[in-house]
Design brief:
The protein is of the alpha+beta class. The protein is about 40% helix and about 20% strand. The strands form three sheets. A four-stranded antiparallel beta sheet has the order 2-6-4-5. Strands 1-7-3 form a three-stranded antiparallel beta sheet. Helix 4 packs antiparallel against helix 9, helix 5 crosses helix 8 and helix 6 crosses helix 7.
């Protein structure tokens, strides 16, 4: 994997909420091993089936976790931002091998922690282990709720949920994503996303132009979504 340079404006490690939650002693022990890493839009952090060598702590941006079929199509199963970590297979007992793909959906920055040192800290049984496991529980909840939502709720509700999850992880009210990309994330037809987005725009809840969605009325968006968003937000 190509090492990408990071601008001087990269946020500190404490911009990641898991790292910020660590007691001072654990945090200071970890800091020398945290390496800044740029997250440009579209970067694939890892593909399914590989052995992970790094745990990523995003400080901004959104990383999409996706399941990929044999024919190359994919569906998003969860998103992660500065509230969590990417690469939880490292400490979940599977030998570091993963079945999902991680792709940067909204650009930002992260800090990488090498797998060997991460496991050394994890096996101390301290607060890092605790927050990583608690985050993983929230991530599993998000994956399960996504499956329920995709099976039982309308495209309109799925789109609202997806937009809200994205808004929770960006610094403003704008999300850069084409309707085709959103359809791929949700695993639905593009025509369904186009119709759903059109209804939201007609209601004045969003505006859409050239691959950029601006949410103009978040409370109204929350009223139109299903219960899945609330379940995930509370667990996180």
């Amino acid at each position: 994997m190509t090492i990408r340079s990071v601008s001087p404006t990269v946020p500190p490690p404490t911009a990641n909420r898991l790292l910020a939650a660590l007691p001072k002693a654990e945090y200071q022990r970890l800091v020398p091993h945290l390496k800044p890493f740029a997250l440009p839009l579209g970067l694939v952090l890892y593909e399914s089936g590989i052995e992970l060598t790094q745990l990523y702590f995003p400080t901004g941006g959104i990383v999409s976790l996706q399941c990929v079929t044999e024919n190359g199509s994919s569906t998003e199963i969860a998103v992660t931002g500065s509230e969590g970590a990417v690469g939880v297979s490292l400490f979940m007992g599977g030998g570091g091998y993963t079945t999902d793909r991680a792709v940067v959906q909204s650009s930002g920055h992260a800090y990488r922690l090498a797998a060997d040192y991460m496991m050394q800290e994890f096996e101390r049984g301290g607060f890092l282990q605790n927050v990583l496991l608690r985050f993983t529980q929230a991530l599993i909840t998000q994956m399960a709720q996504t499956a329920v939502c995709n099976r039982h709720h309308s495209v309109d509700q799925q789109l609202c949920r997806w937009l809200l999850l994205g808004l929770d992880r960006v610094r403003d009210n704008k999300i850069k994503m084409t309707q085709k990309q959103i359809a791929d994330m949700l695993g639905v037809r593009r025509e369904g996303v186009t119709a759903a987005a059109g209804q939201l725009q007609k209601a004045g809840i969003i505006s859409y132009r050239r691959g950029r969605i601006t949410v103009q009325d978040r409370p109204a968006l929350e009223k139109r979504t299903c219960e899945c968003y609330g379940v995930v937000k509370r667990e996180t």
